[in-house]
Amino acid sequence: MSSQATSSEQIDDPEMGSTWFYSLAGIIFFVVFCLAVCVMFFGVQRDFEQVRVIDELPAFSTNLRHEQQGLLGQYGRYEEEVDDKQVERLRIPITHAMELITKQGN
């Protein structure tokens, strides 16, 4: 009989104002939460790239680059193997080489 007593009671619908309020508050909270998570994620990712990619200088390639730039600015001789023969070559500064190339073109 207790089941009949509960079925005879009428359950009212919730008020429309409170339903709208809770729905809008939930949507606003969800959007703010998603934006906060995105900002934190991309902030950490940017810091990670800054530390790993930009701030880390490869020592080997930096030293090699300085050495090669120094060689480009001075005269010198070196030997190179061509068809199983040692050939002596002359190294000249790159600026002088560019001048010679432009003179040959005229």
Structural commentary:
The chain is α+β, with helices and mostly antiparallel strands and 106 residues long. The chain contains four helices and two strands. It has a two-stranded antiparallel ribbon. A hairpin with a 2-residue loop joins strand 1 (76-82) and strand 2.
Q: State the total count of DSSP E strands.
A: 2
User: What pattern of helices and strands is seen along the backbone?
Assistant: HHHEEH
The N- and C-terminal alpha carbons lie at a distance of: 113 Å
- Strands in their spatial order, largest beta sheet: 1-2
Radius of gyration: 38 Å
Indicate the proportion of strand residues.
5-15%
Structural class: alpha+beta
Q: Which word captures the global form? A: rod-shaped
Structure described in brief:
This protein is an alpha+beta fold and 106 residues long. It is built from four helices and two strands. It has a two-stranded antiparallel sheet.
Topology:
Elements: H1 2-8, H2 16-54, H3 59-72, E1 76-82, E2 85-91, H4 94-105
Antiparallel strand pairs: 1-2
Looking at this protein, list some descriptive labels:
106 residues, alpha+beta, two-stranded antiparallel sheet, 2 strands, 13% strand
